[in-house]
Amino acid sequence: MLFLNDNMLNVVNTQQGPRHQHLHHVYLNNNILSVGDEVMAEIDHEKRFYTMKNHSGTHILHAAIREVLGTTAMQAGSFNNENGLRIDITFNRPITPAEIEKIQKVVDREIKAATPREVYNVSMNDAVNKYHALAFFTEKYDDIVRVVKFGDFSSELCGGTHVENTSDIEQLMITGVESKGSGVFRFSALTSVKTITNYLNDEFVKLRSEISDLISKYNETKSELASKDLEKVYDEIFAFTISVNNLALIKTKISEFKELYKTYSKQAKDKIGSKNIAKYLETEPTNNEIKLIVDLNMDEMKMLGDVFKNKYQDLVVILVNESAKMLVVTVSESIANEKSAIEIFNSIKDYNVRGGGNKTLAQGKII
Ligand SMILES: [Zn+2]
Predict the structure, then answer these.
(1) Residue 272 and residue 252: Cα distance in Å, rounded?
(2) How far apart are CA 150 and CA 77, in angstroms?
(3) pLDDT in tens, 269-283
(4) Distance separating alpha carbons of residues 240 and 251, to the nearest angstrom
(5) Which residues, by Cβ under 5 Å, contact ligand 1, an ion?
(6) How far is the CA of 80 from the centre of ligand 1 (A)?
């Protein structure tokens, strides 16, 4: 930020001028800036504090990637600010979860080592040969370049702002590795305990909310059919303490819960359906036809139709739920060629119906 008299102006961008001047872009709002005015520049300490961690984190992650994947893994670009960092890497094959875990371990090791940062302003020749800095020869460099080094682990040409030693990064978490196509992989990461804790809190809330619908549905049906397995996994999902290690575990448990729920919901539907259709089962056909007003949902109406067709031969079943405005016609296979379900459905006179189906089953809405 800049101070003009006592007014604070937010710096929205900085650039270097042709003679290395620092150019600040600010919005003046209602202030007037005249030639000869003195302004005071001050860094945004919080922004700088987190940007330094993320920038040094970028160097450490980059070196870790190359330690694990080898030097054929080339950086194709990187970005960092106060909120996080990412590195694009070109690599000739997909990166495995085991490799990502290994890269994370190398980063953890380097942060723990508390390696001090070294900075050298030297010739390009010294940078490359003496300090073994990674230089990207597609870029244009000045005669004197700046080398940022963390021990023997990382050495890069860089003009950026960095922490004093690797332990100042506090913590680095790889939050994702995605393929961007044409052999480019994007590593995203966060640094600092505070940022990672906030991220994890958000992730845990988001993940747990993924199953809240299923939980509500389960609560509605559990008096009819309870599932100890589902309840056990549910308890486990909510018992996890929020941590980096538990993130993968909770994701696995949530997939497990969703799978278990699929099986459960079929069983619950069958059980509740059987119970709901019971009161209609005594109905007998007249002239090979059963016509009933029912209080059932669509699945249960089809279930009831099937039960009747198994019980009686050459049967036409017409089921109507007037309050839910639904109608189902189902016809035994044996007579479906002469009396097709869809034709019967379309020629119904008592209701205006709209729907579809085939020879043995037709369904739709009463409009
Ligand atoms: Zn850098």
Answers:
(1) 30
(2) 20
(3) 999 999 999 999 999
(4) 11
(5) 158, 160
(6) 9
